[in-house]
Amino acid sequence: MVIDDDVNDAISLIPTLQDAGFRTEMITQFTPGQDADAFLASLGDRYDAVVCDHILAGRGNVRFTGAELVCKANQRAGTPLPAVLISSHVNTEQNGAILRWREGIPSVVDKTDASDEVIEALQYTLAELAGNLARERRAFATPIEVLEVRPGGEEPKAKVVVVGWKIDSSVWMPLRPIEEATGLRPEELPGRWLEAEVNCYAKEASELFYRNIILAPDLPQGWLTA
User: How many CA atoms lie within 13 A of 74 on its CB side?
Assistant: First the structure.
């Protein structure tokens, strides 16, 4: 199943998928107001895999992004539905919305390269769902220092140092999971230390995910970043 609010973009992926042996269908229109859980339930068990665009709001009142749908499909209880995310927003502000769901998204394909890379991305996803996690997708406990927060906008974010990833540089991570995990307000977070499980072998900041976030005591002075 190819899901995209742009018909032409959806059609462009079909030859590649058919060459790989898939029978393909498309969804390019959505029920107004439907959330990701309801949409996923409507797919049932009819499909073996999903390829989904990130931004779906162009054709109506869509209450979810492709990132949320792909994450929930891959993490579906019982029988996961292997899903690959394609996006034109990997290196834009919209990437924050993707990061929020990144744990459940093994592979994100740039839309301009989708026809060349979608099959490899699907194979990568299938391997992970079968339990064969790539090194860059394995999570390890690490300290995280919160430097600043930006609570406004569609996807609030926090600038942090992920010690186990790169102690000498900062990255932006979604703010809402931090607030939900700690119970702290945004203005209380700068200067605080967290602990979380993070895929510290990820090559790029856009591939990082964070789970089991907790507040941590301040680290010894010798651990602090310059």
Answer: 27
Task: Give ∠ CA 64-92-134 in degrees, rounded to 5.
Answer: 75
pLDDT in tens, the chain (226 residues): 999 999 999 999 999 999 999 999 999 989 888 899 999 999 999 999 999 999 897 656 788 999 999 999 999 999 999 999 999 866 555 577 899 999 999 999 999 888 899 999 999 999 999 999 999 999 999 999 999 999 988 789 999 999 999 999 999 999 999 999 999 999 999 999 999 999 999 999 999 999 999 998 766 666 655 5
Nearest to 193 by CA among 212, 214, 176: 214
Answer yes or no: are the C-beta atoms of 57 and 67 closer than 8 Å: no
Alpha carbons 43 and 180: distance in angstroms, whole number: 30
Whether pTM > 0.85 for this model: the answer is: yes
Per-residue buried b or exposed e for 166-182, using 16+ beta carbons within 10 Å of the residue's own CB: eeeebbbbbbebbbebb
